[in-house]
Amino acid sequence: MNPKKNQFPKRLIFIFFSTVLVPFSFFSCNGNNSLSDAYGNFEAEEVVVSSRANGTLVQLNIEEGDVLEKEVNVGLVDTVLPRLELEQLYASAKGVTARMTQLQRSVDVQDERLAVLKKEYDRVSNLHEQNAISTQQYDEVAGQYNVALRELEQVKSQRLVLQAEKMMTESRIDAAKEQLIRCRINTPVSGTVLEKYAEQGEFTTSGKPLFKMAEMEELILRVYVSGSQLDDVTIGQEVTVVYDKDADSEHQTNGIISWVASSAEFTPKIIQTKEERVDLVYAVKVRVPNAEGKMKIGMPGEVIF
Fold first, then answer.
1. pTM over 0.70
2. Dihedral sign (CA 178, 179, 184, 186)
């Protein structure tokens, strides 16, 4: 058997494999990437919940990963001092009410006294006009009547002071009630607890972060596009979103473009666009439903316009 004849078919097989099969295999492995128009990472609208009061955390019933509804009470700051202040203000309000009642009784007495003096004043006025009494007697009764009239006005003026004091006390009561409300820690949105920064029993201050949560049923895929791609991007546009399932396959879903940056920025290092890297790109936000929770914050994703 001639050995050169056996080498000829092998050489043909090698040429066919190297020129046809290998490029086809390379194209198949990179077919998905060539279809994507923009790349980025998933993020969520995170909310940091902070304390609104100073005091000891007597309750903080959350753990990382908890899924909570909106306006759920999850914690409480010590309320002893605010409650004592509120009780003092209630006592002050009762004192003002009692003083107003006493003032009203004084006004009633002055009204009766003034009514008696008014009759006497009218009587002596008629007699004085008829020259039946002296001017000295008239002046004496008139003076008593005018003094009683001014005393009544002075007593009534105290009512305005008490009313102002009552309004101030009621305002302080409302502030104390609001302070008690702020001792309660409620969830501002529905979502998942991502991080917990404090523990029950710790002392907290107003504005100190307690935990972070985010709505996970809808994530935002922030991608970056070049200037030449802007014509293909409009707010409200439905796009295809691709993210990894495993090493050999991907998930596909739909998303809606909700925001396009009005100015360009330098390309983030983690982003690789469809073309070669460019210096300036535009950020685009795509809202993607995540009811099944398959997408996670920070996971890479791709968009096909």
1. no
2. positive
| Residue type present at position 59 | Q
Q: Which fold has domain 47-78+184-214?
A: OB fold (Dihydrolipoamide Acetyltransferase, E2P) (2.40.50)
The CATH 2.40.50.100 domain(s) of the chain lie at: 47-78+184-214
Residues 178-205 have pLDDT tens digits of: 999 999 999 999 999 999 999 999 999 9
How far, in Å, CA of 148 to CA of 146, rounded?
Answer: 5
List C-alpha distances in Å: 289 to 215, 216, 221, 240, 304: 11, 9, 10, 12, 16
Question: What is the C-alpha separation between 191 and 171, in angstroms, rounded?
Answer: 36
Q: What angle do CA 250, 252, 258 make, to 5 degrees?
A: 130
Distance, in Å, from the CA atom of 23 to the CA atom of 203, rounded to the nearest integer, reads 65
Question: In the chain, which ranges are continuous DSSP H helix?
Answer: 3-16, 22-29, 31-35, 80-129, 135-182
C-alpha to C-alpha distance for 188 and 74, rounded to whole angstroms: 11
Over residues 156-160, the mean pLDDT reads 88
34-46+215-304: CATH class? mainly beta
| 3-state SS, residue 153 | helix
Q: What is the pLDDT of residues 49-100, one digit of tens each?
A: 999 999 999 999 999 999 999 999 999 999 999 999 999 999 999 999 999 9
* Burial label, 240 (beta-carbon count in 10 A; 0-12, 13-18, 19+): middle
